[in-house]
Design a protein that fits this description.
With about 130 residues, this protein is of the alpha+beta class. Helices cover about 25% and strands about 20% of the residues. Strand 2 and strand 3 form a beta hairpin. The chain binds adenosine monophosphate. The site of adenosine monophosphate (AMP) has 12 residues, from loops.
């Protein structure tokens, strides 16, 4: 079910639990600003999620409230993960779903990285 991105941050969301180590994940990369791990239900041969360490509901929340250091750290982490995975030359896709029409299901900002095959002009779930 899609979440309301205008609500306050919920510390019980599944990615908050992953950040606290309460739920296991297949970590790809971690630094001061971000954690990257494999999506549990991959929609492409390579499907990685990158989340900021901070408590941000969505891209909108992050863009408004995150510090310059958090924004820089997170954006660099996304690029680093894709580059280290060898995705730059073949190419990859970034996606951040926001709110109801974006079909955001987890109320902690996450960027999807899709790769591993030609992805076509657009990737959409019905
Ligand atoms: P979104 O629709 O953008 O909110 O995407 C949420 C993503 O989180 C989906 O692709 C799920 O497969 C993924 N997901 C949910 N729970 C977990 C989990 N415990 N570990 C890894 N990925 C998860």
């Amino acid at each position: 079910m899609a979440i309301d991105p205008t609500l306050a941050y919920d510390d019980d969301n599944i990615f908050a639990k992953i950040l606290r180590g309460e739920i296991p994940n297949k970590t790809v990369y971690e630094d001061e600003w971000a954690l990257a791990f494999h999506d549990i239900n991959p929609q492409a041969p390579d499907h990685i999620l990158v989340i900021p360490k901070g408590r941000y509901v969505s891209w909108d929340d992050f863009a408004v409230s995150a510090s310059e250091a958090e924004i820089a750290g997170f954006v660099r982490a996304v690029g680093h993960v894709a580059r280290e995975a060898g995705m730059v030359e073949p190419g990859y896709r970034l996606l951040a779903n926001i709110g109801k029409d974006g079909h955001q299901e987890v109320p902690h900002l996450h960027v999807h990285i899709f790769a591993g095959k030609p992805l076509g002009p657009m990737l959409m779930r019905s």
